[in-house]
Amino acid sequence: MVKVVHHIKGRKYLYEHYRVGDKVKCDYIGPVGDRSYATKSTFAPHVSPHKIETELVFQKQLAPTFDLTKLRDMLEKVEELELENVDMIAGELEFVLPAVSAVKRVAVERAEYRDLDFEIPLADFPGQIGEVELGATKANGGTRKNVIKVGGEKTMPFYHFEARNPHKPVIAYDVFDTKINLAGPVRKHFEDVLEDPAEWAKRCVKKYDADMVTIHLISTDPAIKGTSAREAAKTVEDILQAVKVPIIIGGSGNPDKDPEVLEKAAEVAEGERCIINSASMNLDYKRVAKACLDHGHVVLSWTQLDINDQKTLNKHLLELGIKREDMIMDPTTAALGYGLEYSFSIMERIRLAALKGDKDLQMPISSGTTNAWGAREAWMKTPEWGDREKRGPLWEAVTALTLCLAGSDLFMMMNPTAVQLFEDTVESLCGFREVEPLDVKDWIGMR
Amino acid sequence: MVKKIGPLDIYNYLPKTNCGECGEKTCMAFASQLIERAVKLEDCPTLMKPNFAGMYRHLEEMLAPSVKEVVIGVGDSAIKIGGEEVIFRHELTYFNQTAIALDVHDEMKDDELLERVKYVNDFRFKRIGEDLTLDLIAIRSTSNDPERFAQCVSKVSDEAKKPLVLCSWSPSVLEAGLQIVGDQRPLIYAATKDTWEEVGRLAVKYSCPVAAFADDDMAELKSVANALGSMGIEDIVLDPGSHVEGKYFSNTLGNFVASRRAAILNKDVGYPLLGIPATVWLSEEGVETAFKEVMIAATMIDKYADLIILHTPEIWALLPIITLRQNVYTDPRKPVAVDAGLRRFGDPDENSPVLMTTNFALTYYTVASDLESAGIDCYLLVIDTDGLGVQSSVAGGQLDAFKAKEAIKKSGIEDKLKHRKIIIPGFSARISGDLEMQSGWEVLVGPRDSSSIGEFIEKKWS
């Protein structure tokens, strides 16, 4: 008979194994030291996970040449083994039995406070996100007043215990080249400049201190105004004149028209290191990529909530000669309440894969956070939902913050209150905001 | 690092009869489902027989989640927190959503106090077929007077339909509260390095869950939790201290992340986490502070808090918080898309309107619930857009005139109608011209948001 005592999470379970004829019989005796389970029950041997181990022991009895290393591996999970009526002739058999947690043992015995150590499991990521420079100053052939850097991460956002990521997330304000329908809480900040993109951009920079501005050339879509690529390029020139921050140039989303529009825009903005928004699977991304290569811009690789598509498109762009430090990707932002969790998880997966070493995904991530305003909870005047002037900006800010925590680096946003709120939170999380520490225990006594 | 349990580890302890009584074809399939927590051990009738009691107990322990599941309250309103198994939701799913408590204190005026309790009781917001609610009431003892606290607890518990959190640093104040509601399983907040023994004794005496607190010191927090554990207490919640001011907020986030990583990767102090966005009100007040509280709550929901205590009751502040919670705790294993095809709403006839939408589950359910609440008899043509919403699929080419035309033909709708007129989503306006040309149907561009679909049909459909 072989008695096997298993320790599982601090409890002991006793099994007895017999040999009956050429079969192994296994009896479960019950937890050791627990009288309530002392009744003996019989199992068919096949139900027991210990069968393997038992058989090994029997085989060992029968065949002395049995591979002891294998036996040891099999018994690795067994913390204590009592063998009876078994001859073991093995000088080199060693049992590596994990130590039962000392803490647990003490635990049941008596109440006491002991100073314990806490160890943070560190991830030790081998990969690093590429660092991308946005905008070019005079020294580098552009006319921007400053250069902004994104990327360079070595760990997930704000995990300072692991590593300090080098750059703060960046926010770009949206500007459109034609008057569009905007949600009330956004419109009120730009009401008087909606028909003048250059003034609109100035408002963002001068009044709201924008890091960057995005000019969306939506009027080029034949379904909107059909503005020509040449005219659209003029708008880009106006923006570059009006503001001196790095800019992003966006098309209309019309796959037939965009390559031409972005090409012309890239040409007139030569040397400014703009982000060209975007190269995607559903248009001629080779033309967009070439325009970026020819005129020194950063390409935005845009896919729709699909990590494999993102990887494929990035790979294609890399093959066309775009360098990793000249690329940013946008896996699509779904609004809070309308699929934000998809964007959140895709970005987390992308960033984790990149940190683990997937070179095709080691680019900074961009989020079209403005999509938050598509959510009815953001813009709708519904008294029972509370003031939309507060609700709306929070909707955009929470969308941004959530994707920031998932790994996004660059945020295209619209509402100044949302931007301010998001920026303040990010500054705190970056560890930049110096304040006096509070005694948090005081929270109970707050009146 | 502790090795993750796989289906094979579980399978070894199952009956291996492949009897199919659990609904799965094989015991191995049942084992995989157990790991995904899609089924329960109790679903296996064989395992429930007395001679399998030992195996059952083994399995129960093997399958115990890395983060202990803790129940606060009793009966229908009881709240489960923790029970988590993964660090990132895409690795499996998060299980018990972050519970949300609103605070009151024992020096509040009676009417104010009861109004707040009633507010928590009645708070309900319906989103995509789910009722979003507030879950608990946290009673703070600002008076630090046991008698006063007991009175307040008594008043609150008479009205409250939700579980309570009793908050004081003084064991005698906590005990005064427990004498009133000790049988209701409130969460006792909190035991510290100095008070663990007295507070722990209360938790044992009243069989209540208890929070361990240490101020930005994970080793101390672990030690307090361990000391409580040494008294035989299993239902512990961890408060690593909610510093939300300036740069200290990053320490708090770091502690939350470290705690969850340790629980899951090292099976170390695997207890649910408590975050207190309400601490933001320590240093300031006003609308700006409520804004900040929302951002803090959002950070904590995104990163591992199992319970949060809020101060602001403003609906515009709570709405984004509960919506975010619903998003983050959506099971990622659920399909993104619904089946494409033609759906009927109400009792449509040959003159009824036909509408079009995409098969992204969220879009579909939003439109469906708007049609239902408007009480419109109509057809809804659901187009296969690879599970993308309207804006995305128009932008990405998954929804275009050709595809819409094909869907119309394939649906057989033309046999059911006298008219040839379809309402398409406002965000797909771009395809309207092409669709008219290709299909020969008259195309009406509907609202961008389906909430006003009732009004639209009333005005534009004749």
What does this structure look like?
The complex is a heterodimer of chains A (447) and B (462). Chain A has two domains: 82 residues, no CATH class; 311 residues, Alpha-Beta Barrel (TIM Barrel). Helices cover 33% and strands 17% of the residues of chain A. In chain A, the strands form three sheets. Chain A has an eight-stranded parallel β-sheet with strand order 13-12-11-10-9-8-15-14. With 462 residues, chain B is an alpha/beta fold. In chain B, the strands form five sheets. In chain B, strands 10-9-8-7-6-3-12-11 form an eight-stranded parallel β-sheet. In chain B, helix 14 packs across helix 15. The longest helix of chain B has 19 residues. The mean pLDDT of chain B is 94. At the A-B interface, strand 3, strand 4, helix 3, helix 10 and helix 12 of A face helix 3, helix 7, helix 8, helix 9 and helix 10 of B.
Beta-strand residue fraction of chain A: 15-25%
CATH architecture assignment name of the largest domain in chain B: Alpha-Beta Barrel
Radius of gyration of chain B: 27 Å
Radius of gyration of chain A (Å): 32 Å
Structural class of chain B: alpha/beta
Briefly note the CATH topology name of the largest domain in chain B: TIM Barrel
- How many domains, in number, for the residues of chain A? 2
CATH architecture of the largest domain in chain A: Alpha-Beta Barrel
Characteristic terms for this protein:
heterodimer, A: 447 residues, alpha/beta, TIM Barrel, 2 domains, eight-stranded parallel β-sheet, five-stranded antiparallel β-sheet, 13 helices, 33% helix, 17% strand, globular, B: 462 residues, 3-methyladenine DNA Glycosylase II, Chain A, domain 3, Rossmann fold, 3 domains, 39% helix, 16% strand
Itemize the secondary structure elements and their pairings.
The complex is a heterodimer of chains A (447) and B (462).
Chain A: E1 2-8, E2 11-20, E3 23-31, E4 41-43, H1 50-62, H2 68-74, E5 80-83, H3 102-109, E6 131-134, E7 148-151, E8 170-176, H4 184-190, H5 197-207, E9 212-216, H6 229-242, E10 247-250, H7 258-268, E11 275-280, H8 285-295, E12 298-302, H9 307-319, E13 327-330, H10 340-355, E14 366-367, H11 376-379, H12 388-406, E15 410-413, H13 416-430
Parallel strand pairs in A: 8-9, 8-15, 9-10, 10-11, 11-12, 12-13, 14-15
Antiparallel strand pairs in A: 1-2, 1-5, 2-3, 3-4, 6-7
Chain B: H1 7-11, H2 27-35, H3 53-62, E1 69-72, E2 79-82, E3 99-105, H4 110-122, E4 125-127, E5 130-132, E6 136-140, H5 146-159, E7 164-167, H6 171-181, E8 187-191, H7 196-206, E9 210-213, H8 218-229, E10 236-239, H9 248-266, E11 274-275, H10 287-302, E12 307-310, H11 315-328, E13 341-345, E14 354-358, H12 361-374, E15 378-383, H13 390-396, H14 401-411, E16 421-424, H15 432-439, E17 442-445, H16 453-460
Parallel strand pairs in B: 3-6, 3-12, 6-7, 7-8, 8-9, 9-10, 11-12, 14-15, 16-17
Antiparallel strand pairs in B: 1-2, 4-5, 13-15
